[in-house]
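Running low. Invent one:
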Amino acid sequence: MGRTQRRRLQRAKQSGGVSDSLQELYVHLHSLGWQNHTHLSAQNYDQTGRGLCSKQDSFSPEDELIRLPSGCLISIATLESNEAFKSLFNKELFDNDSRISFQALVACYLLYIKHLLECSLKTLHSFYAAYLDTLPSSYSTPYFCSIPELQCLPESLLERTVAQNRQLRGYFEIIKSLVLNCDCCGKSYGQEIWTLAQFKWAYFTVNTRSVYLSSRFLKKQSSHFQALISGDTNLGLAPFLDLFNHSDSVQTTAEIEGQDYVLTLKSLPVPKTKPYDQLFISYGALSNFKLLTEYGFWLKGNKHDYFEFSLLDIEHMVKRNKELSTQTYHRNIFKFIREHNLNDQMFVHIDDGCSHNLKVVLHLIFKQQSYFSNILNQIAFGDAEQFEDVQPELSYLVAYKIEEYEIFGGELDKLPKLTESGAVARSYLQECIRYLTDCYAAHPAD
């Protein structure tokens, strides 16, 4: 599975320091009211690295997995109730045109706590000390690939990584202009204490480990950060609960019951788990591209997977295909496709074949002879059954992407050594090739 490469380089440490930190975390969670009535315990697994199991209990659908009191969560309520943290930000400089995401603000909170611990204020933050020590020291998303590795990635992955980098750097620049000095050491958080590398780590900690919190759970909060945050604040960090790994073969629900955050199993691939079996939750119906770019792993045979194409892929495929490259294509077609966003949601699914938009686009480019807007509208937004067969063109497109990904994989293989992120990205390319090959076999051209 793709998560094999996600086994942390620091796994050797987990038998020592991290295990001790987990024990400390258990103690602090219990002090905040956690009962661990399902007897959960952290274990190391070959496929996923660290995960959770129950040494005593078996689980069936509708069974409760974990119940965490609200005091264990790091949410907007946590940040709004921390007067010292709020005082770090010069509220007079908040600007509606320079906002940050809530993930970025929680990342600041992690770095703030981390610095206080470095200033030896451990007695005030022992819970956070235990939690921070259990967090990974690195993440395996393509964002953390080396420059030579990034140059070997497909355009879709590179575009996503560039967008993430632009966003994170923008957030960090805004934060540096707002935060003040540390009361403990007198240094500036924005200029001397927090670095961009630390912020990237903290941001991906939040991005990969946060859980959804409903508005009912977050009601009656003050609004100190309201003018700074763009988007929702309905997420939080859930220490220990965030050790659950994701599976596409289970379904779980998260509910607020009183002052508890409760995760419940809704479906399993087996009637019942056994003690010591790894327990999984669902992060959502996510494709491998989403899992890789947001969480740093992928799943073999992911039931929610599909492969998405761009209009540029079709243009490149035409240039590479001898039969198609000799034909003439009216520029109005490509202009019409872009103006009506028909190039969105162009994908192939191993069971369902062509998505509607991909079928429309292939028909417009390769089958439609008229280039008048009114006729193109009738075709694009009419009955899909009227489309001529585009399976040959789809097969050409799939074959082109298989060849392209084999080339990218070969370029990665030429590098002397891959980072953890590079190795995960390489294995993802192999899974994409396998998926497209199976799609090609399932939907062959005549």
Q: What stands out?
A: Residues 84 and 303 are 46 Å apart (CA to CA). The chain has 18 helices and 14 strands. Residues 391-413 form the longest helix (23 residues).
